[in-house]
Write a structure and sequence with these properties.
33% of the residues are buried. The chain starts with 5 loop residues before the first helix and ends with a helix. By secondary structure, the chain is of the alpha/beta class. It has 5 helices and 7 strands, in the order H-E-H-E-E-E-E-H-E-H-E-H. The strands form 2 sheets. Strands 2-1-5-6-7 form a 5-stranded parallel β-sheet, with helices on both faces. Strands 3-4 form a two-stranded antiparallel ribbon. Helices cover 36% and strands 18% of the residues.
Length: 135
């Protein structure tokens, strides 16, 4: 598994406006909340994807990626590695641009599935840190 270069990641982040965050918590002490809040503060539209919450960061949550209306630029995943394949399959159904699994999240099967279909895949990298590094 190999992530895109920092230059490619910079391009993805510059072109992107909407980030669907799978596993976003409504608890301000959770990493998913803090990272997503930082991205929201940086100007990105954050769409919480979590069937267990009503809203996060002032935005109504959806239960699945398929419930999102309109195009999604980045799907940012805060789920354990064993769940990434299921999220990758749903990602293919909505035809988003970039699949991004947060720090500590890696699944070779999900990576191969998405790469074979031609999608950019980033795993085991924090989007907030990447954003700061590529400004």
């Amino acid at each position: 598994m190999q992530n895109p270069s920092l230059d490619e990641i910079r391009d993805f982040l510059k072109k992107s406006k909407r980030i669907a965050v799978v596993g976003l918590s409504n608890n301000p002490e959770r990493e998913s909340y803090q990272v997503s809040q930082a991205m929201q503060n940086a100007g990105y539209e954050i769409i919480p994807v979590n069937p267990m919450i009503d809203e996060a960061l002032g935005v109504k949550a959806v239960s699945s990626l398929k419930e999102i209306e309109g195009h999604v630029d980045i799907v940012n995943v805060f789920r354990r590695s064993e769940h990434l394949l299921d999220v990758a399959k749903e990602f293919l159904e909505i035809d988003a641009d970039v699949f991004w699994a947060q720090l500590g999240c890696v699944n070779e099967e999900a990576y191969q599935l998405l790469k074979e279909k031609g999608y950019p895949v980033i795993m085991d990298m924090c989007i907030k840190v990447a954003h700061a590094l590529t400004k």
